[in-house]
Amino acid sequence: MILIQQLILGLLVGGLYGLAAAGLSLTFGVLRVLNVAHGELLMLGGYGTFWLFALWQIDPFVSLIAVGPAMFALGLVLYWALFQFVVKAHEEVRVKNSLLIGFGLTLVFHALAIRLWTADERAVTTVYAGTVVKFGALAIPVVRLSSLILALAVLTALHLFLAKTRWGRAIRATADDWEAAALMGIPVEKTYLLAFALGTALAGIAGGLVSVSYSISPSIGLEWTLKALIVIVLAGLGSLFGSFAGGILLGLAEATSVAFLGGPYREVVGLVLFLMILLLRPQGLFGERG
Amino acid sequence: MLEIENLEVAYGVLAALHGVSLTIQPGEIIALVGPNGAGKSTLLKTIAGLIDARAGVIRWEGKLLSGEPPQRIVERGVALVPEGRRLFARMTVRENLELGAFSQRAQKERRAQLERVYTIFPRLFEREHQRAGLLSGGEQQMLALGRALMGLPRLLLLDEPSLGLAPRVVESIFSVLAELHREGMNLLIVEQNVQVVLGLAQRAYVIEGGKIVAEGEGQKLLRDDHVRAAYLGPLAKG
Asked: What's residue B233's pLDDT?
């Protein structure tokens, strides 16, 4: 029973890993730029949701309607101010410089968050925060279940956007072969901008869900960037639902390790999975390319 | 219609084109032949805006084309079918074609144009919902050509359209090109298959080491000793 309970909790947190990874995977897949500040963007989204609740009692699930677009706008600014200068560069320069920018942003956002909001851990505690759905001895926290469903809904919406709309297809084409995309008349830099802003919005929404299901503090960024990276390596690039499934897999693996090895090994299992996948199946479980 | 004057292109310190000049008159098919590494693909990519020229100008329909980003060049009616086709392999035939009509001008006409492409290549219609990566080589070339046509070009730049295709397929691709030409399309074709392309083109340019070394009517060049020796092999007969 304890194992099953742990697995359920693992599944629920895994959905958020998946959502965090989907955003990182989108920017990485399209821009070929690894944004190591992705976890910090998630942290900012979490604070957005937290403050909307703390100051004006706006329900955290409702406030995502504001947090998503606000983070999208932040993504536009970050791309315009910083990342647009590296995406045009050759691969080596691009990788190095984008890592520098990413680590720089990590420090800035971390320091800024401590300065503005102190280093305290915060969580959105709604009136329904403690509610659980019971199945015999098993308890499913309603807030976490809602977060999982919302994460899936957001990914489905994004999937439809990428699959069906003109600009969504332009993003996929650019991810596949930017030169060929340019030859179709697609303004490649605009698709980079759009993909980066969408990735930032996804991070923000994931952060909002983290702040209501778990807790946030200025220093959670690195942990979430790592989780997202592990999931991307696990699932491979190129599929949003692959990322989601990969996130859930990581959540389940962590839960299993907690049940058998105890809490301290939780972080280790993800890194072991990371290494194993890199050794045995470097394109990822659902990836199509090496 | 297309005028290129003294075009210079370099990759880093390595010069790829030294002062290339070339013109295309309305209604012309121009062939561009030359050995590997002569700068043929570089020239086409520069016209399409994928590579910036270091010096020289490209004019199209009387207005400056060089310096414009690729999407503007497509919008102005110049399309490149790249070497190796460069299809979006994980997307369907239909999705590839619709992406070809991304530009504002082509968006409005995309339904009619899709019909037209399907009429030219009924095979593409049959395979509409298949992934582009699963098509045969010939079908992929048809798709690459169809995708470019979706952008409503007035000048088509083709880079090695016959590469890796069986002779019968090459013949059918070239008969489509001849048909497009009869309907008023301008074509600039880079081709290893010199015999076929010189038979189709009104004029041809020979490029070597980044320079134009010969220019003339296609049929005449076929009889030129230097061209014959270099590109058709010692046994070729005119």
From this structure: 56
Q: What is the pLDDT of residues A49-96, one digit of tens each?
A: 999 999 999 999 999 999 999 999 999 999 999 999 998 888 888 888
Q: Between chain A and chain B, how many beta carbons pairs sit less than 8 Å apart?
A: 65
Best mutation target, B71, B87, B110, B157, to test chain A (most A CBs within 10 A): B71
B209-235 confidence digits (pLDDT tens): 999 988 888 777 777 777 777 666 554
Grouping H, G, I as helix, E, B as strand and the rest as coil, residue B14 is strand
Nearest residue in chain A measured CA to CA from B76: A185
What does the block give as tokens for A105? 């942003």
Burial A219-250 (b: 16+ CB within 10 A, else e): ebbeebbbbbbbbbbbbbbbbbebbbbbbbbb
Q: Across the interface, do B88 and A173 touch by the CB < 8 Å criterion?
A: yes
Q: Quick one: which of A173, A244, A77, A132 has its CA closest to B91? A: A173
The alpha-helical segments, DSSP class H, found in A165-184 are: 166-176, 178-183
Q: Position of tokens 């199945």?
A: A135
Mean pLDDT of chain A: 91
Residues of chain B found within 8 Å of residue A179, distances taken between Cβ atoms? 50, 82, 86
Is the minimum CB–CB distance between B134 and chain A shorter than 8 Å?
A: no
Q: Any chain A CB within 8 A of the CB of B42?
A: no
Q: What is the pTM of this model?
A: 0.90
Cα B238 to Cα B227: distance, rounded to the nearest angstrom: 11
From the list B49, B95, B151, the residue facing A169 with the nearest CB is B95
